[in-house]
Write a structure and sequence with these properties.
alpha+beta
């Protein structure tokens, strides 16, 4: 489970709760709601430092990755064992939803008609990338490794609001509201379409599919 990005205090303010009798429950809901939001969207909102993610680039010009800060001085990127330099032979592109975050890493110039474009790959000689007949159709598994911080330095307002809506829903369910919980082979699950509409809209807007292989 990742780092919660909504807090006990925020949930209590949102639902108008002033007493401390449910603090343990609400703290658990803060963690669960945060985890659900990340699982449903495929994203990482809570900030975690010194993380390692491995991706398979599959020879693509660019791939979708988990949420990394757009700027991170602690970050290191290696491709096929060679260290890359941001802005020279690897580029993190800002997310249209949050410009402080990148979910796309570009591995080479998109225009392969540019002379010498293939030299951004540290193994261009071994891969014979200077051969005019070469095409971008292959790649080694786990070839891209990113070490650094993941998550959103500042949580977007619609993400925070929608997750608080989810937390309020979970709190009401726990305290005896109408049930939308179902039993699955893996345990208790929740039907997405039964969750608050703002939360459903947020999931639809923010959902991504990454090329992650291992963490």
């Amino acid at each position: 489970m990742g780092v919660p990005f909504i807090t006990l205090a925020e949930i209590k303010t949102f639902i108008g709760k002033t007493g401390t009798d449910d603090d343990v429950l609400i703290a658990s809901i803060a963690s669960n709601a945060s985890a659900m939001a990340e699982r449903h969207t495929g994203r990482i909102f809570g900030v975690q430092s010194n993380t390692t993610y491995r991706y398979s680039a599959d020879g693509q010009n660019s791939i979708t990755i988990h949420d990394h800060p757009y700027n991170d001085t602690t970050r290191t990127v290696t491709w096929n064992g060679a260290t890359l330099v941001e802005g020279t032979n690897v580029w993190f592109l800002p997310d249209r939803r949050n410009q402080d975050v990148s979910i796309t890493v570009q591995m080479r110039p998109y225009n392969t008609n540019v002379a010498g474009w293939y030299k951004v790959d540290p193994q261009w000689w071994d891969k014979n990338l200077d051969n005019p007949r070469w095409s971008l159709q292959s790649g080694l598994p786990n070839d891209l490794v990113i070490v650094g911080t993941v998550g959103h330095p500042v949580i977007a307002g619609d993400v925070k609001q929608a997750t608080l809506e989810l937390a309020a829903y979970l709190y009401a369910q726990t305290k005896g509201g109408p049930s939308s919980f179902t039993e699955t082979l893996q345990g208790t699950d929740i039907i997405l379409t039964s969750l608050p509409r703002p939360y459903q809209d947020m999931v639809q807007s923010w959902r991504i599919r990454t090329a992650v292989v291992d963490i």
